[in-house]
Each structure stands twice: as C-alpha cells, then as structure tokens.
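Hi W., the glutamic acid complex you wanted:
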Amino acid sequence: MDIISNKVKSLTPSLTLAVTNEVKRLKAEGETVYGLAGGEPDFDTPEHIKEATITALTEGKTKYTPASGLMELREAISAKLKNENGLNYGPTDVVVSTGGKQACFNALAAVLDEGDEVIIPAPYWVSYPEMVRLAGGKPVIVETKESEHWKITPEQFEEAMTPSTKMIIINSPGNPTGAVYSKEELEAIAEIAASEDIIIMSDEIYEKMTYGETKHVSIGSLSEEINNLTITVGGLSKAYAMTGWRLGYTAAPPAIAKAIATIQSHTTSNVTSFAQYGALEALANDASEKFIADMRAEYDVRRQYVLGRLKAIRGIRVTEPKGAFYFFVNCVDLGMKSQNLADKLLSRHQVAVVPGAAFGHDYGVRISYCTSFEVLSEGLDRFEEFCKEHY
Ligand code: PMP
Ligand code: GLU
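Structure:
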C-alpha cells in the first residue's frame, strides 16, 4: 500500500517558491545571481505597522483570537471593502487567513465537491490548479491569448462551461501576466457566471498595483446578484510588503463565509494574534496610503524601464502589463521549453526567472521587477545576450 495519498501524489511543489528559495540559497553561498523571479515586494514593511505589532506583543496580545480573526480587524476589512471596492460584505462575512494562499484554499474547500469543475484562465498563478485538485475539484484550464492581453474572453468562458462547472477563478491584476480586467470585461464574465449560478473566486491580492490610467475593479461590486456569487480574496502581503506575516482574507456570501470559518476553525485557527494587530494598523493608519503610493510609483518606473528593454530584444514577445509586478515574456520563437530555458539562463548567465510551466504556459518565462535597477539592468543585459544566442 502506498503511504502517500493519491490526491497528494499528483501534486507538484510550488515552483515559484522553489525558484525564489534557490536564488536565496545561491546568494547565501556567495554566488552572484540576478534574481528576476521573486514574487514579493523588495520594500520592507512600514515602520508604523511593525511598531503596532511590537506594542501588541508587549501588551501581551499573545493568546488565541477568534479563529476567523479579531472582530475589529474583520470590521476594518469589511469597511475597506465597502469604501474602496464598493463591495458589500459584513464583518462576519470576512475570515482572516494565513495569507492569501490559505484564503484561496479555504474558498475552494468550502464550495467544491468531488469532480466539480473550476475554470482557470492560463497563464494562471501556480497554486490554483493544485489547490483545486486538493479540494477534490477538477481544474479546467482555458488558455488565454497574448492578443487578448492574456484575458479570458466571454466566448472562451462559455465554451469551457459544462454541467459540472462550479466556479471560475479571476485574478485581476494577475500573476504572472499583469493583466487587469476592465469593468466591461468583468461585466461580461459576471453575466455568464450569473446565468448558471457559477461561483466566482476573485483573487484581488494585487489590487493596489495598477499603473497609468488602469483602475482595479472588484467583480463583486457589479451588482448584488454577482456579490452573492463572489468570494473575494485579498491580503496584505503585496500592498503593505508583508509577505512573511501571512495575512490574507476571504469575504464571501454568508453561507460560504460560515463554511470557510468552520474549515479554518478545524485547521489553522487564527492568524498569529499580534500580526493581526499589525494588520489593523496597516488598514487604519493613513501613512499606509503614502507607502503604497510611493511603492506603486517606483514599480511603475521599473515597469516602463523593463518594458522598453524587453521590446528591444529580438526573439521574444511581450505585452504591456497593466498591474501586479511581473512580465510574462513569450519565448516561443526561441524554441526552448520554459524549464530548459530557465535552467540554462541561470546556469550560464546567472539570471533567475520563473519558467512558464509553473503557470500553465510552456513557452514563456515570468520576469519580476521587485528588485533594484542595478539587478534589473544587468539581468536584462544577460537575458538579451541569451536571446541573441538562441534566436
Ligand atoms: N494569489 C496570487 C495571485 C499570488 O500571486 C499570491 C502570492 N503569493 C497569493 C495569492 C498568495 O499570497 P500570500 O503570500 O498572501 O499567501
Ligand atoms: N505569489 C508569489 C509568486 O508567484 C509568491 C510565491 C508563492 O506563493 O507561490 O511568486
């Protein structure tokens, strides 16, 4: 008899985390690596958030909190969603989870039965299909086109629907493509979802990272009917540079929120008590807005720099990302599969990128600009050299 369950045997470990950890390991060994793989802000968590957390710790806020999170925090998230996103979820519809990652998994586990299908537009964030499988569902991957800016079209959504479709995952701004859906595009998706009561998991963890004229729209804000079908996932990791703190949340229609709370009450329980006080400060203190605005401005400058550099490289194709902090580079003309490409780029040119295979696209790579200009500039010089050699 096999020790490991069939469910888990079919899973692969997170490739994004594996690449990032490999870069950290090589650097610790004194190797030079130009890391363009990291999926986390290179900014430090703002001081006011750290201080509030230290105060909570010193004051002895070190005990269990309610499993779904401190009520003050759930109230603050509910108010934020109402004021900033036009979303109508009460405090008890919010569950504070261990990062956006647990929030996504809770959402899936709450609604999926064995064999339920979940439509996932590709390139997708690495963990969605694996989480769906773990929750007993069946991922249905829909390949989006570069010409559609890597967004699922209403026609594709309709074609992918079967009587077993339970859910669609929308991630806007998206990882790894930086695609941001407009209000009109979301309306078209919402209309189809509503016609068959398909649940929408809307992962909005990059909501603060949009550039130029592009605005983030929450699909659940489009109508009450859609709100009743939407589980909104958010988190503090990216917006407040708090990846290590593990703070995310779901906001869901009451029955789903209750199911999520139940799951969490039997699995991880509450997020670290004093970290929740840090989250409260992040949401309450106006200083956070300035931090976010500065970080976004810096990322926009980098984004434009990288866009200019990538456009000038022969043999690759790139679409302007409107959000998040990634480029998805189409390398199909280099004629190499993504893992092979990423391995060679790292071993011969010391540049780390994430192979597109992690995201369901085997002829591309993800480049992140969460790193200094020096690293970006040298890393892109080397990437250019590599492309010259292979085109
Ligand atoms: N969703 C997406 C699209 C992400 O890129 C990430 C990044 N890790 C997460 C969810 C999970 O974020 P967290 O670090 O808060 O778990
Ligand atoms: N979401 C980030 C990324 O895509 C962090 C890694 C992970 O959680 O998978 O790189």
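The chain has two domains: 6-45+288-390, 63-285.

W.
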